Amino acid sequence: MFIDIDCTQQKKYDQNAYGDYFLSSRNKDTGKLAAVLSDGLGSGIKANILSCMTATMLLKFIEADADIQSVCEIVMNALPVCRVRKISYATFSAFDCNDEGFARIVEEGNPQFVWVREGEVMDAVARVVTSATFPNRHMQIYNIKLELGDRLIFCSDGVTQAGLGSPALKLGLRREGLIEFLLKKLQDQPDISSRDLAKLIVNCAKGNEVDKKARDDISAVSIYCRQPRESLIFTGPPYHADKDNACAYVFKRFTGKKAICGGTTANILARELHIPVEAQILTNAGSLPPVSKMKGVDLVTEGILTLTRACEYLEETEAVTHNDAAGQLVKFFLESDCINFMVGAKLNQAHYDPNMPIEIEIRKNIIKKIAKLLETKYIKTVNIKYI
Amino acid sequence: MNTITVKLCLGTACYVMGSSHLQDLVDIIPDRFGDRVVIAGHNCLNLCTSNGEHAESPYVKIDDEIISNATIEKVLDHIEKKL
Ligand code: FES
Questions:
Q1: Ligand 1 nearest-atom number relative to CA A264
Q2: Range of B54's domain?
Q3: Nearest-CA neighbor of A106 among A48, A162, A67?
Q4: DSSP letter at B19?
Q5: What's the domain count of chain A?
Q6: b/e string for A135-151 if b means 16 or more Cβ within 10 A?
Q7: Which helix (H) or strand (E) holds A232?
Q8: B44 in ligand 1 pocket by Cβ < 6 Å?
Q9: Of the ranges A27-41, A224-238, B21-35, which is most confident?
Q10: In testing the pocket of ligand 1, which one of B17, B54, B56, B59 has its CB within 8 Å of the most ligand atoms?
Q11: Is the domain of A155 the same as that of A189?
């Protein structure tokens, strides 16, 4: 089972910094996923510091499997005290889950999460623990077992209180409003990705605000348990040409989505598998070589320039969609959960000719960089095989 | 009437050495020659790695003829001569 997780945020309209903070990580060896959403007291930079500290500390402790109750005490004690309000405060929702679906959730102050299975909201029973140092703070601890198809939604109160005081929603959207919205969306789009669902929730919350101005920080985290979407990217000719045939058949037999990055690589596959590469569709748009077409392959692009550009796109903070070949490659990555690279180690001498007007990165390095981004920033599972 | 095929190499080496600008030919060629000349992009033509005679990207192939250090003018000249 693969857990697809993503978060969308919107900051309060008159602030420069986000007051909510989201962090997540996936352990490569155990497959354990950990995530924290924290909402700092107030808004702006002060809230940002409080929530960032809370999320960072909690994530580290959860990753290390520390006892959650003592962890929460440590975190609450560590926060700086607000001079105006004389309290230190950041609410949080912490989540971890192994790859069999056994999940632990701890909430303190955030709206209760929503658990949806087959179009219905599930009831989760909480064990309530009161903090020893802060008697007004209670932690809800849940242990649940997730099944394939289940979804969890965590959010900051910016979502449940959206529209507060407006004529239509005197008490804001509330958890009921959120649930209604969710069930409707899931009915329309049962396979929607976490990324898109989180975006929809934030837009819904923002849309309910008076003048569509976010009156508080709004964050939504979506979790979706599903069959992993596998993909394979073949890039670069194998080091020994006598491996060409074997590699081509590995590529052919792969059942998930497939991409080829590299003109020579595409030529090799065309030769070995007897599938013609169709002439590239010429366009004057963009500054990258265009994509080609090959039957049975989802995407065929040029190699190193496209990979380098795709890496830049992945580094960008705001996810914008680009239409060039690199943009299509990024889309290909983001629509997969488990990404396998077959990287040919042969160097193309022509790329290292001193007359080249630009410096061309070595394929291996750029793939490593992309893999790291996909793993850490986009929480994907990545495998690299050098051939 | 026989048609002429123009293959524009868009492999990495040729692309950075200038074939990216040659893509303008996609508009120029039909304007000037109509459907007597067909133009298409192509993956690495395997000329950039060979030494000797043709070691200068970007490359364009006009039917079987190889043009090295190709420019828009050079390509158009060749087509004119062939027609
Ligand atoms: S890139 Fe044009 S011949 Fe190799």
A1: 4
A2: 4-82
A3: A67
A4: I
A5: 2
A6: eebebbbbebebeebbb
A7: strand A230-235
A8: yes
A9: A224-238
A10: B59
A11: yes
Looking at A226, A260, A288, the residue that finishes a domain is A226
| A184 membership: H or E segment, kind and range | helix A174-188
Identify any residues that bridge with A33 across adjacent strands, giving them in sequence order. Answer: A26, A97
A318 and A220, same structural domain?
Answer: no
Nearest CA in chain A to B24: A284
Q: Do A244 and A359 fall within a single domain?
A: yes
B38 touches chain A (CB under 8 A): no
Give the distance from residue A280's alpha carbon to the nearest chain B alpha carbon, in angstroms.
5
Q: Is A342:A351 a contact under the CB 8 Å cutoff?
A: no
The percent of residues in chain A predicted with pLDDT above 90, rounded, is 62
Cβ(B58)–Cβ(B47) under 8 Å?
A: no
Bridge partner list, A260: A234, A300
CA B9, B11, B14, B15: dihedral to nearest 10 degrees? 100
Angle at alpha carbon of residue A366, lines to A99 and A324, rounded to 5°: 95
Out of A191, A226, A261, pick the residue that ends a domain: A226
Q: Which helix (H) or strand (E) holds A221?
A: strand A218-226
Residues A73 and A205 grouped into a single domain? yes
A208 lies in the same domain as A301: no
- Work out how many domains chain B is built from and give that number: 1
Q: Please measure the distance between the N-terminal and C-terminal CA atoms of chain A and give it in whole angstroms.
A: 29
Both A154 and A273 in a single domain?
no
Q: Of B71, B63, B64, B65, nearest to B17 (Cα)?
A: B71
Q: What are the angstrom distances between the C-alpha of A200 and each of A2, A7, B63?
A: 22, 11, 53
The CA distance from A106 to A88, in Å, is 19
Instruction: Indicate whether A100 and A239 sit together in one domain.
Output: no
Residues 55-74 of chain B whose Cβ lies under 8 A from any Cβ of chain A:
57
A252-267 confidence digits (pLDDT tens):
999 999 999 999 999 9
CB within 8 Å: B10 and A289: yes
Percentage above 70 pLDDT, chain B: 92
Domain coverage including residue A249: 230-386
Residue A122 sits in a domain of what CATH number? 3.60.40.10
Q: Is the pLDDT of residue A113 over 90?
A: yes
**H helix runs in A233-362, sequence order:** 244-253, 263-273, 304-315, 325-334
ipTM of the complex: 0.71
